[in-house]
Design a protein that fits this description.
Order of helices and strands: EEEEEEEEEEE
Helix content: under 10%
Number of strands: 11
Shape: globular
Strand content: over 45%
């Protein structure tokens, strides 16, 4: 049974930083592309960042490029999202997602497995 467990969310002031973690179990982690999506109240879930399974190539939404960094540790079955220079518009529930070997990494439909989410709130 595949499980993805996010942690690291919280309340932070604008300009601050947070590091999200997603621990995966029940899968061969190194064979999965991993991603972070987010969903703000009243909005659709949107792509934030992804990292491929083989070369660890990374992809970012324009809104977070230069501020967020996605990384993975295959030995720990964990993917991270380092978020710097946070803005109030980054406030959302952040979800970790996994896709076997990948596909279109920016698309929600690519990902078969999802975590429960962790709340990130950025105050102005």
């Amino acid at each position: 049974q595949v499980q993805l467990a996010e942690s690291g969310g919280g309340l932070v002031q604008a300009g601050g930083s947070l590091r999200l973690s997603c621990a995966a179990s029940g899968l061969t982690f190194s064979s999965y592309a991993m991603a972070w999506f987010r969903q703000a109240p009243g909005k659709e879930r949107e792509f934030v960042a992804a990292i491929s399974w083989r070369l660890s190539s990374t992809y970012y939404a324009d809104s977070v490029k230069g501020r967020f960094t996605i990384s993975r540790d295959n030995a720990k079955n964990t993917v991270y999202l380092q978020m710097n220079s946070l803005k109030p518009e980054d406030t959302a529930v952040y979800y970790c997602a996994a896709a076997y070997y990948g596909g279109v990494l920016t698309s929600r439909e690519t990902y078969a497995y999802w975590g429960q989410g962790t709340q990130v709130t950025v105050s102005s």
